[in-house]
Amino acid sequence: MPLEVVIKGLRFETSSARGVWKYKLMLPVKKEVEPVSLGEGDTPLIPLKSHKRLFVKFEGANPTGSFKDRGMTLAVTIAKYIGAKSVVVASTGNTSASAAAYAAKAGLECLVYLPRGSVARGKLFQALLHGAKVVEVDGNFDEALEEVIARYVDNTQGHVYPLNSVNPWRLEGQKTIAFEIYQQLGFVPENVVVPVGNAGNIYAIWKGFRELREVGVTDRAPRMIGVQAEGASPVFKTWLAKADELLPVERPYTVATAIKIGRPVNWLKALTAVRESNGFMLSVSDATILEALKTLARSEGIGVEPASAAPLAGYRVALEQGLIGQDETTVLVATGHALKDPEVRF
Ligand SMILES: Cc1ncc(COP(=O)(O)O)c(C=O)c1O
Ligand SMILES: N[C@@H](CCOP(=O)(O)O)C(=O)O
Question: Where do the annotations place pyridoxal 5'-phosphate binding (predicted)?
């Protein structure tokens, strides 16, 4: 399992900084360290018209249009602090867009490994725009990440700093989604619904809520509900089978390219989040993802990419099956902006 940061002496006090960095006392960064920031975080929590107690946490409002920026600001800050000159990621698109932008801000070289032909146009444009060097891999995301891990994580000779979610600083930044949800609602919701791909974010958010409990801000915690696309649902299958080993999907497919992942590195962390929180996993069809995307766009005015519509598709299934109630406060985490993937049709 990828490493985890454990922080002693956490204090839930916010500073006058904005976004992620206002929670510096909850982050594993020394006071004197200067953040590499683009103003990430402070994203809106939007109430939906369709259900009274349903909210969308719109992560598309981050500087590069996805939640990855919250993790990248931390991880690139650390990269710079330790004197790295280059950073590397494998990506289905958003991680590369975010890494490229933060590397540019920090003055670092950025190398991105992308599965050839599988990255949404807006995301590829962003990586190139910010000056990343793109390596196209003849394979899927899992194979691209394997190559990055073999070259730059297991073999540290190259001195290139990896920024995928095997890097625990990433999750530390992403956990601030929980802090914001808590502060925006004024309480801890019953359910938080998250799309699951490489599987780090659901754990990061859970870690954030757990820490709020640890520091005594609240004694409550939400159920964490993970949603995967049917054709790319290894964590769902593993959860359903109560298996101790990952049940991988060798040839994942889904219209939601951001979560087209068959061997997620953080699968065990995702299961930990779901199990510890008494939550559950769901899988949803591409048709229902696109239907949810259309509802968000046309009835609520919220433009998201397909992966980010999976939580609404999952919410509908959960309601239908009586797994959650309409009277429960539920937050859907909409992870990426519609402009990322302008070729989506529904
Ligand atoms: C838009 C979007 N949503 C969801 C995810 C899934 O997040 P995670 O990999 O942390 O499970 C990703 C990337 O993985 C993404 O880019
Ligand atoms: N959807 C992700 C996949 C990689 O996830 P990471 O959390 O390990 O960076 C992407 O945008 O590339």
Answer: 94, 197-201, 335
Residue 337 in this model has a pLDDT that exceeds 80: yes
pLDDT tens digits for range 270-279? 999 999 999 9
Name the pTM for this structure. 0.97
Q: Supply the residue whose CA is at minimum distance from atom 6 of ligand 1.
A: 197
Same domain, 191 and 281: yes
Distance CA 202, CA 225 (A): 8
Identify whether residues 308 and 236 lie together within a single domain: yes
In a domain, residue 346? The reply is no
Q: How far apart are the CA of 197 and the centre of ligand 1, in A?
A: 5
**Residue 249 located in a structural domain:** yes
Kindly state whether residue 55 falls inside one of the protein's structural domains: yes
Confidence of residue 98 (pLDDT cuts 50, 70, 90): very high
Pocket residues: Cβ below 6 A from ligand 2: 68, 91-95, 164-165, 197-198, 200, 258
